[in-house]
Amino acid sequence: MSARWGAAVALVVGAVTLSVGVPIAAAADSVVSTIPVASTTASATPTVVVSPDGSRLYVSDTNAGTVFVVDTATLTVLGTIPVAGPIGLAISPDGSRLYVVSTNPANVLVVIDTATRAAVASVPVGSSPAGIAISPDGSRVYVSNSSGNGSTAVSVVDTATNTLVTSIVDAPGPRSMIVSPDGSRLYVSHTAPSSHDISIVSTATNTVTGTVAIGAFADAATGFAISADGSTLYVASANVGLVRVVDTATGTVTAAIPAGPGAYDVALTPDGTRLYVTDSTANAVSVIDTATNAVVSTIAVGVTPRSLTISPDGAFAYVANTTSDTVSVIGIDTFPAITTTTIPGGTIGSSYSTAIATTGSPAPTLSVSVGALPPGLSLAGGILSGTPTAVGSYTFTLAASSTVSGIPATATQSYTLVVAALPASAPLNLTATAAGVTAELSWTAPTSDGGDAVSGYRIERSTDGAAFTTLVGDTQSTAVTFTDTGVTAGHTYRYRVFALNSAGASAPSNVAAVAFPAVATPAGSTPPTSTDGSAATDAQSTLADTGSDVTAGNVTGPLSLAFGLIAAGVFAGVVRRRSRKA
Fold first, then answer.
1. Which of 301, 304, 327 is nearest to 36 (CA)?
2. Cα–Cα distance, 506 to 422 (Å, whole number)
């Protein structure tokens, strides 16, 4: 912010300790605190600047010969710095030095150590110094000399040595100034009747390289602001109530914005979205949307507001009110943002709740802008909650909306919420039945599929009381029967079945058992001999050797035939022996 000029003002302080208000959170762009300042003398041309870290506010009181140091956290005055006739203020990029233009009794630039609040140097400049600007790297301070002309128009001070290194030849009556963000250009306004245009100065050569024509003398610039990329210069002209927008590449005015009858000083928010303009006639601050170059809101402040500055974080604007002897603290709206980037998944039938965090002032309102929430969930007060009633993957977009300094604003964030199924309930009524050399299993499907269709079954088997092992990992079928062909005579088998869906396996079914007893060769019998002289294999031994299955207490099929043959053979042998004895 450059130093300002104009009518006498009354921003004064009569004591070191002031009664102040502590700022509170703003619900919208509004004055959230006021620092009352008063003395028995009338101040002139107050200037306010804020330190690069935002912790300190410096306020000049010209006629009282004082610069007040304010703690911005508590808005309490920490102390004063005596400087004769302070007008313009600037602070170094590192915050270690405060530069004060002093007009009375000497025309000097006073260098203040901000840690000690003591003057460390006094550099003579030109006649009636008024405006001040500092290069982005802090190596140069420029002082406009309002009574200077030609070679005495602008003084250039080397901050490393605190010496005047050169002067810039310019038109008479230089006042407000600002340096481009890259430090390559200095813009200088003029109020002398013979020159009122804005000079464009090359800081590399310290020479005027162009001008920006702004019209009649009444249009003289009283305040400057420049975009972060240096492409746009904003120029306030109090006497005509306009803010001009200048394309710095061409040096031409591209727009003229009516910003109140007394548009005096301007300041940009750090993000460049809004321009704040003091209106010294209407006792208000106008807010301009830089995207549309339109005034979107006005804020009532103290009487005759002139100089203003915005904190580095964009949270507050500080406005010096000349006649009411106050500094108004404006809480600046901030754009909405959704800071929650991911949300947890849910489970069907289970309670779900997650907070969607947002930032912004005023607090934004959340809504679903694209897609739909999972059935059973709703959004209220920044909480997404409910009980999901359907399984699936749901993609939707939430919008955080508010009105920021009169500008409708919305931020969006997309999410994917996966509602998982529960495991199905256990299969029911499992039975196992021996059927020849196989075990036939049958069961009833689960009464609940857990919200997702059963896709198959896992079958586990235990042999002779051992631990269960997986017989079939996934049948990949919804059939409720299964044939186990891997059974062996002489063993007892137990089975249990699990239903499978996307959530995994259900609880096990009941256990069903089936026994396949072994069959031995009767004592004293001799296996028949084959035609080739080898021992013949009877039906019983054949079944035992090949592992054919039998169900306990129920001999069927080939095994029953074998038992019949054996019994017939034994009976015939007994009859023959009895016949010989007779």
1. 327
2. 9
Q: What is the separation, in whole angstroms, between the first and last Cα of the chain?
A: 142
Q: Is 431 exposed, middle or buried (0-12, 13-18, 19+ CB in 10 A)?
A: middle
Task: Measure the CA–CA gap between 194 and 231, rounded to whole angstroms.
Answer: 28
Tokens 């904190």, residue located: 311
pLDDT at 158: 98
By the 8 A CB rule, do 171 and 190 touch?
yes
Task: State how far the Cα of 154 lies from the Cα of 175, in Å rounded to an integer.
Answer: 9
Burial class from Cβ neighbours inside 10 Å (0-12, 13-18, 19+) for residue 70 reads buried
The C-alpha angle with vertex 371 and arms to 366 and 375, in degrees rounded to 5, equals: 90
Q: Can you tell me the distance from the alpha carbon of 128 to that of 119, in angstroms, rounded to the nearest whole number?
A: 20
Say if residue 362 is preceded by a cis peptide, omega within 30 of 0. yes
| Widest CA span in the chain | 163
**3-state helix, strand and coil shares in percent for the chain, rounded to the nearest 5:** 5, 50, 45
Neighbours of 217 (CB within 10 A): 14
Q: How far apart are CA 399 and CA 396, in angstroms?
A: 10
Closest CA to 112 of 136, 141, 135: 141
- Report the run of H or E that residue 562 belongs to, with start and end: helix 558-581
- C-alpha 527, offset from chain centre: 88
Distance CA 563, CA 311 (A): 104
- Per the DSSP assignment, residues forming a β-bridge with 202 are 185, 207
**Under 8 Å between Cβ of 3 and 87:** yes
pLDDT at 524 over 90: no
Mark residue 576 as left, alpha or beta (left: phi above 0; alpha: psi -120 to 50; beta: remaining). Answer: alpha
Q: Could you check whether the bond before residue 193 is cis, i.e. omega within 30 degrees of 0? A: no
pLDDT in tens, 393-415: 999 999 999 999 999 999 999 99
Compute the distance between CA of residue 560 and CA of residue 557 in angstroms, rounded to an integer.
6
pLDDT tier, 489 (very low <50, low <70, confident <90, very high otherwise): very high
13: its two tokens: 């302080």
pLDDT tens-digit profile of 94-111?
999 999 999 877 899 999
Tell me the two tokens of residue 127.
């006649």
Nearest-Å Rg of the Cα atoms of the chain is 46
- Nearest-CA neighbor of 496 among 512, 482, 507, 480? 512
Distance (Å, whole) CA 521 – CA 437: 19
Tell me if 565 sits within 8 A of 571, measured CB to CB: no
Q: Which of 353, 354, 475, 346 is nearest to 421 (CA)?
A: 346
Mean pLDDT, range 14-25, rounded to an integer:
37
> By three-state DSSP, how is residue 543 classified?
helix
Bridge partners of 297, per DSSP, are 287
Q: Residue 571 pLDDT > 80, yes or no? A: no
Among candidates 382, 452, 446, 370, which has minimal Cα distance to 414?
370
Let me know: does 49 contact 58? Beta carbons within 8 Å: yes
pLDDT, position 478? 97
Beta bridge partners of 442: 431, 481
Cβ-proximal residues to 166 (8 Å cutoff; 6+ apart), any chain: 156, 206
Sheet bearing 129-134, strands edge to edge: 129-134, 140-145, 150-158, 163-170
